[in-house]
Amino acid sequence: MELDFPMVQVLNEEGAIVQPAYREQITKELTMSMYRHLIRTRMVDRKCVSLQRQGRIGTYVPYEGQEACQVGSALALNDGDWMFPTYRDHGAMMTFGRSLTQTLLYWKGRTEGCVPPEGKKIVPPSVPIATQLPHAAGAACAEKWKGTKNAVIVYFGDGATSEGDFHEGLNFASVFHAPVVFFNQNNQYAISVPMTRQMKTKTIAQKALAYDIPGLRIDGNDVFAVYFKTTEALERARNGEGPTLIEAVTWRYGAHTTSDDPSRYRDQEESKKRRETTDPIKRVERFMQREGWWDEEWVNQVQGEVNAEIEQAVAEMERYPKANMSDMFDFVFAQPTWTIAEQKEAYLQWKRGMER
Ligand SMILES: Cc1ncc(C[n+]2csc(CCOP(=O)(O)OP(=O)(O)O)c2C)c(N)n1
Ligand SMILES: [Mg+2]
């Protein structure tokens, strides 16, 4: 079965282009723009882990190692498209246009971090696994029925494919020919459960067969493969050819969240080895060096700019006025249920008692 879904690569580990068909489109300008996004997302991710360790934000979900998946796919979107992310996809959200300050507010536990940025249809990250897939299929149908050319991308992990919502989302999108790209980041673990214990299939791409839609397996550490294949899938969607399932094979270097200790369930040498061989950023660096596009001064300048952006966003996040505790009751439903109204009343009574 695996042979039916060979892994597509455009840029190999050594930084050489292995699909000449894309050669012309891979300009210096495109490469430098991608590289800037890649290092920005990595620097932000590392900063967030450090902020969490200092107690300045809450639990954090790192994505280091998955930058090519997130940057390549987000850059393939048009401004009018929808993005349905998970808790791990803040790199994709930032690349598509969500500010760094908003990202930090999200991790500070603020409702303001969930508001879609002006003009961009980025819905709040889904923490319940796979619930966003039927939502994405629905949004795609709405765009289709309105007659627009807007498409939808929805992100989810390998573990999410064991959920009913994965199957409901794909089936619905297939039946209604919805313009949606199901973008799977197969980092090969669902917390401590390896893919081999999660499913009997060898690939995730092959699950597309059950819905009679195209399934594609790509190297998720190859930003060009991700960018071009996602662009093609979005084009199909816009042209009324229906959904695509993309499996981007990748690896998270760090912990599942800042509350997790991966040394309890996997050999840490594996991540170390992968950093040296398949790292998505090093691969682009090797390519730029081969092309003679590598410019140390420019890289230092970009890092300096990102550092300044990070420092400014952290300061803004920390200057934010204190959260109103009753937000947690007010923003669940448009009209509160009686249980939530009761809980809010109990909280307010407790608060009055504390103030006395
Ligand atoms: C419906 C639901 N069940 C269980 C959980 C607990 N949980 C949080 S993350 C996770 C693993 C998800 O793995 P995967 O889909 O591979 O995504 P990854 O975290 O690797 O990006 C689980 C089971 C949850 N958030 N939602
Ligand atoms: Mg996973």
Spell out the key features of this protein.
356 residues; alpha/beta; Rossmann fold; 2 domains; six-stranded parallel sheet; two-stranded antiparallel ribbon; 13 helices; 46% helix; globular; binds thiamine diphosphate; binds magnesium ion; Pyruvate dehydrogenase E1 component subunit alpha; THDP-binding; thiamine pyrophosphate; oxidoreductase
What's the quick description here?
The protein has 13 helices and 8 strands. It has 356 residues and is an alpha/beta fold. The protein binds thiamine diphosphate and magnesium ion.
Description of the molecule:
With 356 residues, the chain is α/β, with parallel strands linked by helices. The chain has two domains: 20-322, Rossmann fold (3-Layer(aba) Sandwich); 324-356. 46% of the residues lie in helices and 9% in strands. It is built from 13 helices and eight strands. The strands form two sheets. The protein has a six-stranded parallel sheet, with helices on both faces. β5 and β6 (193-194) form a beta hairpin. α1 packs across α11 (296-319). The termini are far apart. Bound molecules: thiamine diphosphate and magnesium ion. The site of magnesium ion has 6 residues, from β5.
